[in-house]
Amino acid sequence: MATDARDDVSAGSLNEPIYIDGRSHLEDVTTAHDVVLVDFYADWCGPCQMLNPVLERLADTTEAVIAKVDVDEHQQLAGSFGVRGVPTLVLFADGEQVEQQSGALPEDRLRTLIEGYTE
Description:
Elements: H1 2-7, E1 18-19, H2 23-32, E2 35-41, H3 46-61, E3 65-70, H4 75-80, E4 88-93, E5 96-102, H5 107-118
Parallel strand pairs: 1-3, 2-3
Antiparallel strand pairs: 2-4, 4-5
């Protein structure tokens, strides 16, 4: 799945989350799209699993691109963003980090956060 998503890095809005495979891939995605919500997650994390359907709906229904970073596979990348717990959500607008939230936020709050940068 990651290779297909990477091929679409310069496409418009994507309808499903992109799985990030390293720092340069994350930089490519955040610079290629206007608004990117990055989910730092772990497979063993219950709140992360509960957040998955919310992120899939947001990817399908907003202009934002949803990117996912597995903190177990990419510990240095997560550390560079100061991720201390999962899930941690980082919002990028125009290639710059503009927000960072820890914990599983409700869908309406995430949608409002995204829409603040897409309008």
